[in-house]
Amino acid sequence: MPVAAIEEAAERLAGLEGSALRVRPRQCLNLRHLRAGCSACAEACPTKAIRWSPRLRVEPFDCAQCGACATACPAGALEVRDSVWCRRLAQISRAVAGTGRVLFACPLHLRRDRSLRRRTDVVEVPCVGAIQPWEIVAAVAFGAASVLLLEARCSRCTYRVAHGRAVRTVEEAQSLLAAWGRREEVRLGSEPPASTEAGSAFRALAGLLPQKGRSADEELARRGLEPQEIGGDTTQPQDPGEGLERWIPSSHRKLLFFLHRLGEPAADRVAPNAPLAHVEVAPDCTGCGMCAYFCPTGALRKRETAGKTELAFRAQECTNCGFCTRICYQGAIRTTEARPGAVLSGEEQVLWSGRPSTPQERLARRLV
Ligand code: SF4
Ligand code: SF4
């Protein structure tokens, strides 16, 4: 792709920047490599404010800033602003502290069933498709016995496209929790459980009055949480080494933070649909290092050590975006089930070591 075209596409993508979304266009897989073929954000976007087919089209005025695209983006090109997720995390914290469960509900659902507004266990989200797996893991880490994503009105909603994203989010969270041996109930459902909160009649009246409670910062501080430590926006990219600029998505750092809080994993593998992966290279890897050059997070790195080239992998930084498998011309790299131990420890593994072969050497090998 010519540089001017990349610059122009980056500028268009940046048009989605708004009250809830932060955009880092250079992280977008499609702007990093021609063979990326990613359209996850477009598939999740309920208002079609972003399209990749036949070419990138961004309609900033159609963007509802719901954040469904940020949930889908595996590279951190589209992310939810700190102020938004901090507020929601504080609501999750209050819900768990008050009732031991979390009910995520969208504005449409809350309008149709006004009693939900008065419940402490309800966390309002712009759309259930905007909920991120780490938020479900956080709820469980806080002590929630159940997490329910209310979906009853989705088929009649103008945002219904994002429902598929909500289904995947629940499946990803279930896979993660299963690997950590957690059996809490996490599901999509149409019926909210009956409220068990005491004094609901009083709360119904109080719900009509302006509420004065702990601020989001105070609520997080009560749990000893500090946004920057959890995975807040950072101004520092990863060391790019020889490759393109790279960042670990904020959503991925938050996921790691709360997985640590779940304690020791119970399984030695995580199901392949989770946003974590292990990477393997086949013997026909040529050591060209293209996967490391383009990897958006820096999970793959190429380096020279003692006259040899090494390809190293750090599972903690891999979001299972699958980009490396799509751009390898040899088809020599593949993602497999993540090892939770390696994800938590941050250990590095050398996947390949040797002298990169030239195209002539590879041709000669094929001919004889
Ligand atoms: S989901 Fe992210 S990486 Fe994929 S096309 Fe959209 S912005 Fe780019
Ligand atoms: S190692 Fe591969 S799957 Fe993991 S983040 Fe990098 S490009 Fe994506």
From TrEMBL:
UniProt region (Disordered), positions on chain: 216-245
Domain of life: Bacteria
SUPFAM superfamilies named in the record: 4Fe-4S ferredoxins
Bias kind Basic and acidic residues: ranges: 216-226
Cited PROSITE patterns: 4FE4S_FER_1, 4FE4S_FER_2
Pfam families cross-referenced by the UniProt entry: Fer4_7, FlpD
GO molecular function: 4 iron, 4 sulfur cluster binding; metal ion binding; oxidoreductase activity
PANTHER family from the UniProt entry: ADENYLYLSULFATE REDUCTASE, BETA SUBUNIT, FERREDOXIN III
Protein name from the UniProt record: 4Fe-4S ferredoxin-type domain-containing protein
Species in which this protein is naturally found: Limnochorda pilosa
